[in-house]
Structures are given as structure tokens and as C-alpha cells.
Amino acid sequence: MSASQLERAEWPAADFWEQLDRLEGRHQRVQTDYEHARRGLERLTPREVEEVRRAWRRYCEVIAELDQTTAEFESLRR
Questions:
Q1: What is the pLDDT of residues 3-44, one digit of tens each?
Q2: Is residue 9 a contact partner of residue 1, using CB atoms and an 8 Å limit?
Q3: What angle do CA 17, 20, 22 make, to 5 degrees?
Q4: Are 38 and 52 in the same domain?
Q5: Quick one: which of 39, 35, 36, 41 has its CA closest to 55?
Q6: What range does the domain containing 59 cover?
Q7: For the whole model, what pTM was predicted?
Q8: Is there a domain that residue 63 lies in?
Q9: Spatial separation of the C-alpha atoms in residues 48 and 63, rounded to whole Å
Q10: How far is 24 from 31, CA to CA, in rounded Å?
Q11: End-to-end Cα distance, the chain
Q12: What is the DSSP string of 46-67?
């Protein structure tokens, strides 16, 4: 970069740095939550793992049904 280009370069505004700080803090909190959740899953018994799998499958089925009915509602609106 030339000297004139450096003179024209703008330093990010204060709100950028505030937003960056908030994002970094949020990222660290989410990483901590992830680690706690992962450790909790690692402590599950085989029976508990199967229960979680069943619950997850049912959750996915319900979400798929919800998506389908929502799409059908949307098609009726048109």
C-alpha cells in the first residue's frame, strides 16, 4: 500500500469494536456451553443414549410434519 492509500484507509468505527467484543464474548459462552453439553453426552449410559436417539428421531419426524403442513398452508395462500 502506498502512503496515500494508508492515509485514506479508515479505522473501523467504535461500534465495530463494541460489536466485535460482544461477538467474542458470545462465542466464548457458546463454546463453554458446547463443552458442557458434550461432556454430559459422554456420561450417558447405553440405555440413555438409545432414549436420546428415539427422542431425536421423533423430534425430526415432528419437524418434518410441521414443515410439510406449513408448506401446504403456504400453497393455499397463493
A1: 566 656 678 888 999 999 999 999 999 999 999 999 999 999
A2: yes
A3: 110
A4: no
A5: 41
A6: 46-78
A7: 0.56
A8: yes
A9: 22
A10: 11
A11: 55
A12: HHHHHHHHHHHHHHHHHHHHHH
